[in-house]
Design brief:
The structure is a single chain. The chain has 161 residues and is an alpha/beta fold. It folds into two domains: 116 residues, Response regulator (Rossmann fold), CATH 3.40.50; 38 residues, no CATH class. It is built from five helices and nine strands. The strands form two sheets. It has a five-stranded parallel β-sheet with strand order 2-1-3-4-5, sandwiched between helices. The mean pLDDT is 91.
């Protein structure tokens, strides 16, 4: 399975530390930031963002709007203590999912995996290759690119897989 890169933007030390440990235990690569001002240095390497809404400086909504304005199709799950309907609707309009605090980390992990599967397909890993059978694509992790096949090579490869 591909090790997805997760960006966790959470200013609460206890929540951030706990979520980072839980996600790493599930074999995600996690970068935890306590505010959103520096995320643009790494955003092109991220597969999914877990974004707190209430942050120092720009809030999670503003940061996510900036990310989306770059044309990046990175799914975002908002985490927030705000449980009013207007906040939820705003979060679901800007991002892909919204969870209110407190929450069960198992639910967050399941929502993350569903978004990742929908966004990137389900992968099988064989040595340095990640195989996305649903979209008929193969990625070479060592070279950091997609393997290019002719139409016949692709059919043969996926026939054997």
């Amino acid at each position: 399975m591909k090790r997805y890169n997760i960006l966790l933007v959470e200013d609460d030390w206890m929540i951030g530390d706990l979520l980072k440990k839980i996600m790493e235990r599930e074999e995600y690569n996690v970068c935890w930031m306590k505010e959103g001002k520096d995320i643009f240095d790494i955003i092109h390497e991220v597969d999914l963002v877990i974004m707190d809404v209430m942050l120092p400086g720009d809030d999670g909504y503003q940061i996510t709007k900036k990310v989306k304005s770059l044309g990046l199709n990175i799914p975002v799950i908002f985490l927030s203590a705000r449980n009013d309907m207007d906040s939820k609707l705003q979060g679901l309009t800007i991002g892909e999912d919204y969870m209110t605090k407190p929450f069960d980390p198992r639910e967050l992990l399941l929502r993350m995996q569903k978004l990742l599967d929908n966004q990137y397909g389900t992968f099988t890993q064989i040595k340095h290759l990640y195989i996305d059978a649903e979209h008929k694509k193969v990625f070479n992790n060592d070279l950091h690119n997609e393997v290019v096949f002719t139409a016949i090579e692709r059919k043969i490869f996926f026939l054997f897989i």
